[in-house]
Amino acid sequence: MMVAGAVVSLLVPYGTVIVIGVILGLVVDNYRNTLYLREDIRAIKNHLGLMNNKESKEYEFDKEFKQVDQLSSDEMSVINKRIEAELEQENRSKKN
After folding, report:
1. pTM above 0.70?
2. Which of 13, 19, 63, 80 is the most buried (most CB within 10 A)?
3. Are the C-beta atoms of residues 18 and 12 closer than 8 Å to each other?
4. How far apart are CA 86 and CA 79, in angstroms?
5. What is the DSSP-derived secondary structure letter of residue 96?
């Protein structure tokens, strides 16, 4: 790979830019694959019950956060109304 990159950068006018672009693409792809693998390992650990309490809570929080991120605007407005109602009830109970 290094020899091919050196040959391309010497023979092609913008070869260095091409080689750097290819390397950057490989690094980004490797990082993305690593993130997917990490997520899959966390899901397996959670399913098997191998996480401690802190890891389990963090996993559940991340899972809920991703689900909320994918909700439609109508679903978000329903959730917001429910949260506002709960907060109003808490404020009323604190005042009494």
Report:
1. no
2. 19
3. yes
4. 11
5. -
Which tokens in the block code for residue 19? 């080689």
**Predicted confidence pLDDT, tens digits, the chain (96 residues):** 788 888 888 888 888 888 888 889 999 999 999 999 999 999 899 889 888 888 888 888 888 888 777 778 888 888 889 999 999 998 888 876
- The two structure tokens encoding residue 63: 């899972």
Take residue 65 and report the two structure tokens written for it.
């956060």
d(CA 43, CA 85): 33
Torsion angle of C-alpha atoms 89, 92, 93, 96, degrees rounded to 10: -160
Cα distances (Å, whole numbers) of residue 76 to 43, 67, 83: 26, 11, 10
